[in-house]
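Title: Prediction job returns without error message
Component: structure pipeline
Severity: low
Priority: P3
Assignee: unassigned

Description:
Job completed but the reporter wants confirmation the result is attached to the right record. Sequence as submitted:
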Amino acid sequence: GVVPTTVVLDGAHSFTSLHVQSGATIEPLPTDAGQIGLLDVTVEGDFTLDAGGMINAFGLGFLGGYQSGNPSIAGRTTNNDTVGASEVDAGGSHGGMGGEGTETEAGVTYGSFAVPGEPGAGGGGTPDGPGGNGGGLIWLTVTGNVLCDGWICADGAGSSAGAGAGAGGAVLIDATEFQGEGIITAEGGSVSPDLQAGTGGGGGGGRIVVYANNTFSGSLRVDGGQGVGIGGDGDPGTVYLDDRTPPSVVNMTRLDASPTNASFINYRIRFSKPVYPVRDEDFVPYQTGSLLAV
């Protein structure tokens, strides 16, 4: 399909191909106290996001404190709850911790760096204003290639009146090739220094994950947002890139004496990329002449 304008997608949608043109936007429904507004797009062919096009989940994550639909001064966080959330004027957390407020610490970080499944947390509110909402949740599963020259945004919303800003959300891309010169952001929101300059923590950064052969030359950003005064800055979030190439053995070093008649021999093996977990059954002995090698 071709997207020439703004389209709101609710839940999971599948396309044979998808092209978001310049000036067009795809966005999910906002998260509220009853449901998570997930943008879950599957494309059987290629996905193209033109320069000037956008996938936008800005501020569509968990609600900030005192936002409409959230009567609590605490922002909402993992499991769409206020348990472990950022309280009064602290920034929301996700991949990175939010900035502390004047009297409270930010909520806990949560979620998987490799398979993020929730949006960013909301910031804590104050009697003078609501906390910023967290960034939303975007999943793109593409059988073909992704060409991203536009902007994929899951940033947390900023705040004012001394409240805490929202944490960055999450973007997960699973494709064959990931190309382009665009921008992908899951940054924490910042606090506006307009009022009560002694308060307000910045939102923590979110999570970006790409599973693909990666030649993308654009920008991947998960910075934390800026706090105001004694309100702390949010910590950066996480970026995880996996090119799907199976790991290879770079070298293998024998640790035990040679020759030996020992029943077991220890080796140190270095792989071309991180491997976890490593199990005994992953290594199969084979016979070469009269030598038994691993």
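Comment from assignee: result matches the submitted record. The chain has no helices and 20 strands.
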